[in-house]
Amino acid sequence: EVQLVESGGGLVQPGRSMKLSCAASGFTFNNYDMAWVCQAPKKGLEWVATISYDGSSTYYRDSVKGRFTISRDNAKSTLYLQMDSLRSEDTATYYCARTGITTVEFDYWGQGVMVTVSS
Amino acid sequence: DVVLTQTPSTLSATIGQSVSISCRSSQSLLDSAGNTYLYWYLQRPGQSPQLLIYLVSNLGSGVPNRFSGSGSGTDFTLKISGVEAEDLGVYYCMQATHAPWTFGGGTKLELK
Predict the structure, then answer these.
(1) Which residue of B has its CA nearest to A43?
(2) Is A62 helix (H, G, I), strand (E, B) or coil?
(3) Which of A10, A83, A99, B78 has its CA 20 to 30 A from that of B67?
(4) CA-nearest residue of chain B to A5?
(5) Yes or no, beta carbons of A45 and B100 under 8 Å apart
(6) What is the pLDDT of residues B71-112, one digit of tens each?
């Protein structure tokens, strides 16, 4: 059974940093691209970042470029999102998601982790 | 960025009723290789999103066949043939043809 379990969220002050983790199991992690998707309270979904199966390529939405870093440790089957210079508008639930190999869909999602940026 | 406009924003239905949700894109989602990266997701209350449809019309794993997707270019539709109670929630379309990947604003399906 595919499982994605996020951790590392919580309350953080503006300008500070936070690192999210997503532990994957039930599939061959290093065969799949992975992504982070966020959802602000009572709002819709927003793609944040994607990393290729081997970590060689990364992609970000403009609003997080230069502040967020997506990475992975295939030996540990874990995905990460390092979030620096956090802003109040980064407040959201962050989901990690597996990306289909050729068809690119987000076929499995974690349960999500809440990040609140506030003083 | 590609803007996906979903209509209606709210949909009231009775159990057994058939309903449709529209997703209109600001640009064609057909890429140069002939692929259309348009997807549909359902987010039930308090849950993570789940995949319903990929590449316009393909059912995700375990998704009931009362769900169907159609469309091309800039206009796409999700149809539910006979709403069941477990179908309630917010439906999102998403495109991955053009960076950045974008989602529609969502359509909330509720019981009438």
Answers:
(1) B105
(2) helix
(3) A99
(4) B48
(5) no
(6) 999 999 999 999 999 999 999 999 999 999 999 999 999 988
